[in-house]
Amino acid sequence: EVVLTQSPATLSLSPGERATLSCRASQSISRYLAWYQQKPGQAPRLLISDASNRATGIPARFSGSGSGTDFTLTISSLEPEDFAVYYCQQRYNWPRTFGQGTKVEIK
Amino acid sequence: EVHLLESGGGLVQPGGSLRLSCATSGFSFSSYAMSWVRQAPGRGLEWVSTISESGGSTYYADSVKGRFTLSRDNSKNMLYLQMNSLRAEDTAVYYCAKEAPAYQNWGQGTLVTVSS
Questions:
Q1: Mean pLDDT split into 10-residue runs, chain B, 116 residues
Q2: Option in B61, B103, B107 nearest A46 (CB)
Q3: By CB atoms within 10 Å of each CB, which of B40, B50, B62, B104 scores lowest?
Q4: Which residues on B lie below 8 Å from A36 (Cβ)?
Q5: Degrees (nearest 5) of the Cα angle B53, B34, A37?
């Protein structure tokens, strides 16, 4: 099973700041990694697929990078609506797995 | 517009059964694999099961293998999750999701509570 480890667990930032979230895989997963955003009481929303492909309707301030075992989600300038929990997820093999999440909170 | 609507959740005793349904619209259902992902209260996301476009292949998390059965009816654009021998640790919001190939679209979720 591929274990995804996200860091940090919590990121405290102010609006307008840059957010950098990390996801590390326990083995190489090529570029088969996705990022999701989840707000309280809502279903997750796909942000990035295959490491760097922004999903339809996702603002350009969200970008993904990485391959192999190390991946990054960057939010270039935080908007008030970006404070949420972010999950990474791999589709390289079965079982599909998610990281434990990074909470981006207002400082 | 893609729409996914889960139903069938509720309160069930340990050892009991439930059948979740996911009604879909707005896309060619038979062209996409479909999955269930769950989230226990206050916890992260956990993949549960995936079914291929035709229904010929299914995949399960070890935590539910042998107890849950995923199926689909492409003529009705419906996805089903039969859950047997339910345990307290199955308590969660269950989401159905369309794979394209990441989980591109999600339903609003249905809550399953396993408790005596």
A1: 97 98 98 98 98 97 98 98 98 96 95 97
A2: B103
A3: B62
A4: 45, 103
A5: 145
